[in-house]
Amino acid sequence: MSKEYGFATRQIHGGHIKNSAGALTTPIYQSSTFVFDNAEQGANRFAGKEDGFIYTRLGNPTEMELEGKLAALEGSEAALFTASGMGAISSTMHTLLKAGDHVISSKVVYGCTHSLFDEGLRKYNVDFSFVDTTDTQTIVDNIKANTKMIYVETPANPTLDVSDIQAIAKIAKEHDLIFVVDNTFATPYIQQPIQLGADIAVYSATKYINGHGDVVAGAITGKKALLDQIRMVGMKDMTGSIISPFDAFLVSRGLKTLDIRMEKHVKNAQRIAEFLDTHPQVNKVYYPGLKSFAGYAVAQKQMALPGAMISFELKGGRSAGEKLINAVELMTLAVSLGDAETLIEHPASMTHATYSAVDLEKAGISEGLVRLSIGLEDVEDLLDDLDQALTQL
Ligand SMILES: *Cc1c(COP(=O)(O)O)cnc(C)c1O
């Protein structure tokens, strides 16, 4: 699809594949395998001499529509959808790394990403340095002869650390390193890592990309040559982590409204962050849309909007946080994020429970940190709910 169309047009029409019945939306091709006309055609498809579907783990029309849509939104050459965000990350890492390689990773990453790197991949003799990627000099200082990749989450889960994608892309180019960005918190509506110089962007499509809390899915975007490798090695053989046709259909449906959802999520989040920032019970607010936040300037530079994830610490620490989580009535106690419902959770004991106490401290994820995924409700109702819960402390 032409890149000249605006974002909203691309999110609706991008990737559409005509079907024989002329259905407006791409049907759910609920089929594991695809029929060959004859032996020669089957052999040619396997040999890559002829385009066409073979088996759903290698590609499916419902999934292909979704790939086209996301690639059109990001202006990337290609996209690939997986069964989960962890499927996207593990397929990428398994394809591009080998024993003896070294990776520089943000010290603040999603909990399961941290355990995949620190335990899962270390078992295969891949080495990791978890560093503060908001400081580009620290990245340079940690490059070794065997460094192969820089992996950055920005804004990071859950402290919202903002790393400078353009500056890191420059370092990666100079040292011939692969640069991967987890863009889950920002979405392509707010931040486009490939345009900013990253080689690969990964997503938990479970979150804003789908946006309705009814699917677990992941995505990878970037250069076609890299994505072809990830599809045919990491995804096809090593993780087998393909999205199902039905989930691909649901994500296509969700993605059509990404822009209007993000606008409302962010509008609500900005109001709530400002409310928390001036509240006497609140010690510190982590939100890229607050001038007082460390990542504000870089966020202004590379993000169209500050996103809708907020973390904060209460003056009463962990026990106050637990009381607050139990006292809210409208906000829902659940992990995950990017849904219509506002979700509240405690990272140290939930999403980041895979971190050791030492690693939590190193990453700046305090025992008292509370994380909010601001939903699409009326913001006055959300503010009232927080207010009543805070007065109970
Ligand atoms: C949730 C999440 C993941 C993992 O995605 P799943 O779809 O749950 O496998 C990865 N990165 C970030 C930033 C996340 O929030």
From TrEMBL:
Keywords assigned by UniProt, alphabetized: Lyase, Pyridoxal phosphate
Keyword check for Iron-sulfur: no
CDD domains: CGS_like (cd00614)
Cited PROSITE patterns: CYS_MET_METAB_PP (PS00868)
Cofactors required: pyridoxal 5'-phosphate
This enzyme's EC code(s): 4.4.1.11
Pfam families to which the protein is assigned, alphabetical: Cys_Met_Meta_PP
Catalytic activity: L-methionine + H2O = methanethiol + 2-oxobutanoate + NH4(+)
An MF annotation (GO) of this entry: methionine gamma-lyase activity
Family listed: Belongs to the trans-sulfuration enzymes family. L-methionine gamma-lyase subfamily.
Protein name (database record): L-methionine gamma-lyase
Protein source organism: Loigolactobacillus jiayinensis
Taxonomic classification: Bacteria, Bacillati, Bacillota, Bacilli, Lactobacillales
